[in-house]
Design brief:
The chain has 200 residues and is an alpha/beta fold. The protein has a single domain, classed as Nucleotidyltransferase, domain 5, CATH 3.30.420.10. The protein contains 6 helices and 5 strands; from the N terminus they run αβββαβαβααα. It has a 5-stranded mixed sheet with strand order 3-2-1-4-5, sandwiched between helices. Helix 2 packs parallel to helix 3 and helix 4 crosses helix 6. The chain is globular, with a radius of gyration of 18 Å. It starts with a helix and ends in a 7-residue tail after the last helix. This is IS630 family transposase.
Length: 200
């Protein structure tokens, strides 16, 4: 990974990590305070199968503020509707990231089938600003985006009784915006992996 970091710095590129996660109407439970003998109860309004999927990028470059870029995708509830991101969704996310970051990207992500889809690989091969590397199998501890999901679940989503899917989306957006404006949180997610990005 250090070699990849040096490669990104040498090219003047952003080192970008990607991951996706799904969130449902059932809130994650977290510790809280209450009076002795009065256990807090979070009442959930029905068990909705509707999920919100989010693909996120954490972006690092020496001498620049770390960035978080994300895209939500709602499950429309249709039986034949796609619930996860397609290769076109990833193409559009990477194109938008390239425009926002204003420079080449060295992308590091996991071995998800859609990440290795032939159409996506063909598209990526034609972009001189994009270099892709894959994480080892079963290595979520090397992906700083996992830290973003942890911050969301322990903070903005924990013990919240979501009334509607829109309520869930609102909380997700609020949490992600909070993180976006605090680059030290994004840096902390990288530090948790034990990886660093240093100029050559």
């Amino acid at each position: 990974m250090a070699v990849r970091g040096r490669l990104a710095a040498a090219r003047g590129a952003w080192l970008v990590f990607e991951d996706e996660a799904g969130f449902s109407m059932t809130p994650p439970q977290a510790k809280t305070w209450s009076q002795r003998g009065r256990t807090p109860v979070v009442r959930v309004r029905g068990r909705s199968r509707r999920r919100i999927s989010i693909a996120a990028l954490t972006c690092y470059k020496p001498g620049h503020r770390s960035r978080l870029i994300y895209r939500p995708r709602r499950d429309d509830g249709q039986r034949d509707g796609r619930k996860s991101f397609s290769w076109r969704d990833y193409r559009d996310l990477l194109t938008a990231a390239h425009q926002q970051l204003g420079g080449p990207i060295v992308l590091v992500w996991d071995n998800l089938n859609v990440h290795k889809a032939a159409d996506l690989r063909e598209w990526a091969a034609a972009r001189d600003w994009l270099t892709i590397y894959y994480l080892p199998p079963y290595a979520p501890d090397l992906n700083p985006v996992e830290g973003i999901w942890s911050l969301l679940r322990r903070g903005w989503l924990s013990n919240v009784a979501f009334s509607t899917p829109e309520h869930l989306v609102q909380r997700l957006r609020r949490g992600l915006r909070h993180i976006q404006y605090r680059s030290h949180l994004i840096d902390g997610c990288l530090a948790e992996t034990g990886l660093t990005v240093r100029p050559t």
